[in-house]
Amino acid sequence: MKKMPExxxxxxxxxxxxxxxLAAIFIGKEPGFLxxxxxxxxxxxxxxxxxxxxxxxxxxxxxxxxxxxxxxxxNGMVTFYGMSEKYLLFSLLCMFLILPIELYRNRxxxxxxxxxxxxxxxxxxxxxTLLINIVHPNDAIGYDPLFFVGWIMLVLSTDSGAxxxxxxxxxxxxxxxxxxxxxxxxxxxxxxMSVAFAVGFAQFLDFLSVYEWIGLSVVSVVAGIYxxxxxxxxxxxxxxxxxxxxxxxxxxxxxxxDSVGLATPxxxxxxxxxx
Length: 275
What we know:
The protein has helices at about 5-25, 30-55, 60-80, 90-100, 110-130, 130-135, 145-170, 185-200, 210-240, 255-275, and strands spanning about 175, 180-185. The chain is mainly α and about 280 residues long. The protein has one domain (about 5-275).
């Protein structure tokens, strides 16, 4: 009985967040996507740097926030509005400013602090930045939130399929050292669920063939499974259950973006090859 309120909270929060997400990208269009993504970059980096500090290190938060935001907004200006790539030059400066700024911080482990600052950009800001190139795959297609939601569903539907298959058939552990509850059977069920969604989406969004949709599903799901495991590894390293507490019943932003984060660069490359 104690689990019911938590389940209700999880469902209600999930519906609210999903509603805000849909409103931002469909009604708000490109500006809405940029606002939502900017919040994702800042909150994601905040949670990542919190985890790093739990490990005893002090990354450069402000420089990381500026670099992450400049990457995301610069790519948005170039991709959505066709502006000059010079808007990305500020990101280049922020990247190299991390090095001399560490001289003035007088903190222990400067080498590791710098490394963690860059890792936050790679792990959080770069994947969110590349989401721009999935909602806007190329200039011929333009801004297509329906395709973006379809791709998100390919990744997120894996959880439902994995839960059902893992509960019914799970016997062989996928990666017991990191995530004892996950099984190979669950992973296979998640992939099948995602492929079923891909076949359905191919009937409505035909700029990818059904086989290309299936390929996108396989690439995204496999990368997403590893993304989930990587986040579990990072949290386990610092003894954290969740990356944050922003979303009651769900944890933090990174807990919701773990699969999407690693799936994004692989989906980005895949789409560049087939579109």
